[in-house]
């Protein structure tokens, strides 16, 4: 599937052996999302035994159709260390943005093709409820040919899930945009999920272009009180079956996960996915351990994401401070990406010598008050530099403690030499 | 020690029975820091079985001597839900700020009296190394009489700790300001820690004014690579002995803890403190699970603080984005307090019905897109309101998904009624 020289580079970046990388790919414990129609500068491997990766969502909408603004967000996300980007454009014409991303981005690109299909159906037939599978299929084909690296496919939400939902109240209902579109479509058309019925056909396309499938969690909890409920678990079981289908076709696959989970259920959720989905890489949105932090959900998400990654989640989706409130701006993107990087790095430093060393090095420079050497090692040196306030330009202490700087006092004691 | 009517109010706020509160106080599992020279509007109980509390540090320094700026920070911290404040003034004249806080604050106040003692010694004798115990004692007495509610006392750092530090390299050395001052003093004067030698005398004063002792961790790790090392553990053992001394005198006591701890050692650190310090309430600074996030250490701290509180830490010290870089401004204070509140609430919602219900309620309103009802339930309604962008003033969807709002689509499906 991939050339040896290509894999060698990835293994080198991950600080693992080529044979380990090959083994993990062979055993479906990891994926490298990369459409075979193109090359990118920074391909990544996502899965067990590799560094935790993070994804940033961008995208235009009918209310925010500014493509260049989204491209700026992409650049900021890459500067701050995002490993992948998803274009979640909906409402507006998404193809212009997507083509620009494919042309310019150095990191893998994912999409949720049902969004564009819904918009196209609306244009053609007046509403997304009138969307045919043909319309979905044309979108999938177009995006595959253009060079999208991974598709979120919501094949796990089924007619019987909706029956269940009718009879079992949930606080948040369905918060997945793709899930909501499909639920509405199924109810209006009284038909089964077309992404489930046509899954084999979709896999043939994915195989042809080496597109990785990211199995969407349409029924993820959108409120703490819905966490780990029967709906969520039933969908996970469907996804577990679909994972096997992917593997039988030789298609790379990962599984998407919640969402909103209380602290005491995060470990269980990770273990459950690894068990029910046969060890497929796990891509989590959050999880948020509380619902009260609107405006600061990047922090809630960093908390949940850290714990999730610690227990085995492989891929973290960035949540920005704008989550639940508005379309994010470029500052929201930066705050969100850094929060997720903190989560990823906190886990990686336990597992990878180079990450541990990087972390130790910054503490070493900090103890010596070599400020200029610490900045390039921080996650966002632009902010760290702009924050740093020295007493005098010539001095090596900051305004926090002034001359009562503990580090400087200890320096005088000759305790550390 | 406390009147029944006073305790009844605290129990009511905590949603526990009066008898449970009394039992926890009797068994030294909890403290209520409150100087008997005064009353405050919002006293709090800190300890096992109660909601997780958070403390915010403010304070002037020779570089930032603006008292009114610090008072603004105090107000912002209280608005955002801080349960206590510590005045860590050093370098400048701290008594003006302290008196204002005592006069105006509705929450308990803590100090680190060695800071003022060091400044006074410097003024009087030219350097803090010339500080006599008399000078420390005068400071303690003055602050006690003024109405400080809890004192951080660094009695656990001993001469032999410094010997050990000389022979066993540490990345971060001593990062505690109080610890550094005392270490330097001990080395220059070739004497044992005066706060250790005179601990009984200090306890008599604490007893007289019902001041809670917060045993400082002068030897806490200031770098991940120093975490849970012999120095830290030896100091904890000394603190364990001092905890018993406090109890024998009838003085309320809590123990301060790290600092910088990797994720896989946080649980151990909490359990160790609870064991070695005989179940005394645990007050943690962070912990930060990574050292690379300068400019975003409120997020690292929220991650570590959540995990710490989950395993039993009772009191979280706010870390701001300015940590390691500069004296924080009012925005830093707000960001830091909210981050800590997220940590505390994420744990509290697992333990307290009212916190769970508050959390469920916001999700309920969110699912119904009753925006105005969600805001008062968020941690910072000012930010949530300012972030929220509706498509049209009359509409109930936001700019994130526009008309493809999953919640609105699901509403049309009649699945949740």
How does this model look, in words?
The structure is a homodimer of 417-residue chains. The first copy, chain A, has 417 residues and is α/β, with parallel strands linked by helices. The first copy, chain A, folds into two domains: 4-351, TIM Barrel; 354-413, no CATH class. Chain A is built from 18 helices and ten strands. Chain A has helices at residues 4-14, 18-26, 67-79, 95-104, 113-125, 133-146, 159-167, 177-189, 194-197, 199-209, 230-249, 263-276, 297-311, 330-351, 353-367, 371-374, 381-387, 406-412, and strands at 30-31, 46-47, 53-58, 84-87, 109-111, 150-153, 212-215, 253-257, 282-285, 315-317. In chain A, the strands form two sheets. In chain A, strands 3-4-5-6-7-8-9-10 form an eight-stranded parallel barrel, surrounded by seven helices. In chain A, strands 1-2 form a two-stranded antiparallel sheet. In chain A, strand 3, helix 3 and strand 4 form a beta-alpha-beta unit. Chain A starts with a helix and ends in a 5-residue tail after the last helix. The mean pLDDT of chain A is 96. At the A-B interface, helix 7, helix 8, helix 13, helix 14 and helix 15 of A face helix 7, helix 8, helix 13, helix 14 and helix 15 of B.
If interface size is counted as residues with C-beta under 8 Å from the partner's C-beta, which chains form the largest one?
A: A-B, 103 and 102 residues
CATH topology of the largest domain in chain A: TIM Barrel
CATH class call of the largest domain in chain A: Alpha Beta
Query: What is the first-to-last residue Cα distance of chain A?
Result: 53 Å
What is the share of helical residues of chain A?
Answer: 40-55%
- Total domains of chain A: 2
**Approximate shape of chain A:** globular
Identify the strand order in the major beta sheet of chain A: 3-4-5-6-7-8-9-10
The profile of the biggest β sheet of chain A is: 8 strands, parallel, barrel
Number of strands of chain A: 10
Q: Which secondary-structure class do the elements of chain A indicate? A: alpha/beta
How do the helices and strands follow one another from N- to C-terminus of chain A? HHEEEHEHEHHEHHHHEHEHEHEHHHHH
Give the number of helices of chain A.
18
Oligomer: homodimer
User: What is the CATH superfamily label of the largest domain in chain A?
Assistant: Radical SAM ThiC family, central domain
Q: Give the strand content of chain A.
A: 5-15%
CATH architecture of the largest domain in chain A: Alpha-Beta Barrel
Radius of gyration of chain A: 22 Å
What's the pLDDT, averaged over the residues of chain A? 96
pLDDT < 50 stretches of chain A = none
């Amino acid at each position: 599937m991939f050339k040896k020289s290509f894999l060698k580079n990835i293994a080198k970046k991950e600080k693992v052996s080529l044979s380990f990388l090959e083994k993990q790919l062979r055993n479906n414990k990891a994926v490298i999302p990369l459409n075979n129609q193109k090359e990118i500068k920074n391909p990544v491997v996502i899965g067990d035994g590799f560094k935790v990766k993070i994804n940033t969502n961008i995208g235009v909408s009918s209310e925010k159709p500014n493509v260049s603004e989204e491209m700026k967000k992409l650049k900021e996300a890459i500067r701050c260390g995002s490993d992948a980007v998803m274009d979640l454009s909906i409402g507006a014409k998404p193809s212009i943005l997507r083509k620009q991303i494919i042309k310019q981005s150095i990191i893998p690109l994912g999409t949720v093709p049902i969004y564009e299909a819904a918009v196209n159906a609306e244009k053609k037939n007046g509403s997304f409820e009138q969307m045919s599978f043909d319309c979905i299929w044309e979108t999938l084909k177009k995006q595959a040919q253009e060079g999208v690296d991974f598709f979120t496919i919501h094949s796990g939400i089924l007619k019987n899930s909706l029956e269940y939902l009718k009879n079992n109240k949930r606080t948040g209902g369905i918060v997945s945009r793709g899930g909501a579109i499909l639920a509405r479509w199924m109810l209006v058309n009284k038909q089964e999920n077309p992404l489930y019925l046509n899954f084999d056909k979709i896999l043939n396309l994915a195989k042809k272009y080496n597109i990785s499938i990211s199995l969407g969690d349409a029924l993820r909890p959108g409120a703490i009180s819905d966490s780990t409920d029967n709906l969520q678990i039933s969908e996970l079981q469907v996804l577990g079956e679909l994972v096997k289908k992917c593997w039988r076709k030789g298609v790379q696959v990962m599984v998407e996960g919640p969402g909103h989970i209380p602290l005491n259920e995060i470990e269980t959720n990770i273990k459950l996915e690894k068990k029910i989905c046969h060890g497929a890489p796990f891509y989590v949105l959050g999880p948020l351990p509380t619902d009260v932090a609107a405006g600061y959900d990047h922090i809630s998400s960093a908390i949940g994401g850290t714990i999730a990654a610690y227990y085995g989640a492989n891929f973290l989706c960035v949540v920005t401070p704008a989550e639940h409130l508005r379309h994010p701006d470029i500052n929201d993107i930066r705050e969100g990406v850094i929060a997720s990087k903190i989560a990823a790095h906190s886990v990686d430093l336990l597992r990878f010598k180079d990450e541990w060393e990087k972390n130790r090095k910054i503490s070493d420079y900090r103890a010596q008050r070599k400020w200029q050497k610490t900045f390039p090692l921080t996650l966002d040196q632009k902010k760290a530099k702009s924050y740093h306030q020295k007493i005098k330009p010539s001095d090596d202490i900051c305004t926090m403690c002034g001359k009562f700087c503990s580090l400087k006092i200890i320096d005088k004691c000759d305790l550390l030499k």
